[in-house]
Amino acid sequence: MADLSKFGVPSVDGNPVIMMPKLQYRFRVFMVGFGQNSTAREFTQNVISVTRPSVTHDEITLDSYNSRAYLAAKHTWEPTTITLRDDMNNTVSRIIAEQLQKQLSHGTQSAAPAGVNYKFGIRIEQLDGTDTPLVTETWTLAGCFIQNANYNENNYATSDVMQITLQIRFDNADIHAGIAAVDAPGALTIGNTMGSGGGTFGNAVGAPT
Known about the structure:
Blueprint: E1 27-32, H1 41-45, E2 47-50, E3 55-63, E4 68-77, E5 80-85, H2 91-103, E6 104-105, E7 110-111, E8 120-127, E9 135-150, E10 163-169, E11 172-177, E12 181-184, E13 187-190, E14 193-195, E15 200-201
Parallel strand pairs: 13-15
Antiparallel strand pairs: 1-8, 2-5, 3-4, 5-10, 6-7, 8-9, 9-10, 9-11, 11-14, 12-13
């Protein structure tokens, strides 16, 4: 067994340790209330990449006698991007089309009367890599809608797979230790919260089905 006691940064108690980092490729994405199929398992299976949430706060400048102070003002969650494989059975493109149809029927030019009629939730889970994976961290995104859908291009000069890239705008995000669930488009039910941007707090939930 390797002796790791010589590596790492000395801690307060004098015992240096190396912590296992989270790995970018150990993750999965669940969509809740997306399109006409709330489970959308085929969507999850075809995810290539997803950007984790990013938040920016405006600032308020308070000028005083000889100096300035700064306060945090309104915040903005930047859109997240999900890239998917466009499978031969058209499953992914069909699910995306269903969601876009909920947001706006381009054929009839009819829009949903309220956000609750088309918004969905996203759960991004960080996994530990075992055969029965343990969820070590969960991001939950609420109040989501597709802001941009890019269907890539056909090209004779490449062997790359066809991809679909979605830019998704959302209202709120939370990060949790372990598993969390998005129960409704605009509300979160979570357990063991690490940091919160808001939502409805409840008991911890079980493993996703």
